[in-house]
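Sequence design from tokenized structure. All designs in this work follow the same two-part layout: the structure record, then the generated sequence. An example of the structure record is given first.
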């Protein structure tokens, strides 16, 4: 069994994208993007083309070098980005577009594909962003319903 450090793995994924291998899929491992993305889902990544916009889900690096997959909440006039996970109520700032390595262009969950324009994608890209103040409660309700 091959074991690879997460940073090294994602460094290699980003290198593949820069070499033109696209899309590249990776598994979701955290819960910061629930309920849109769940651990075990596959996200399909491509190099960002054109301007990134609020609502886009992107793979970026923090100043610590840690890779994160979050949604753009706001694009600032100075070129920085305000980021927020769909399961979070706090934001963080990405200072430069150079820190953004890829954009999610599709999601596969249990064999089903979800793409931009699909109802589920639209919901999390739009209304869900506006629910940030009550997300914690909505996620608790979602968790209870999902268990049943």
């Amino acid at each position: 069994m091959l074991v690879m450090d997460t940073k090294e793995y994602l460094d290699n994924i980003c290198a593949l994208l820069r070499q033109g291998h696209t899309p590249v899929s990776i598994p979701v491992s955290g819960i910061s993007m629930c309920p849109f993305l769940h651990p075990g889902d596959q996200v399909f990544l491509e190099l960002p083309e054109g301007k990134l916009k609020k609502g886009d889900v992107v793979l970026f690096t923090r100043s610590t070098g840690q890779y994160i997959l979050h949604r753009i909440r706001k694009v600032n006039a100075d070129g920085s980005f305000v980021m927020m996970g769909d399961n979070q109520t706090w934001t963080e700032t990405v200072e430069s577009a150079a820190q953004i390595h890829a954009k999610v262009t599709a999601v596969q969950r249990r064999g089903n594909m979800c793409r931009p324009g699909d109802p589920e994608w639209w919901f999390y890209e739009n209304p869900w962003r506006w629910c940030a103040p009550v997300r914690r409660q909505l996620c608790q309700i979602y968790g209870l319903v999902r268990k049943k």
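The helical segments are 6-18, 119-125, 127-130, 135-147. We note this feature because it recurs in several other targets discussed in the main text.
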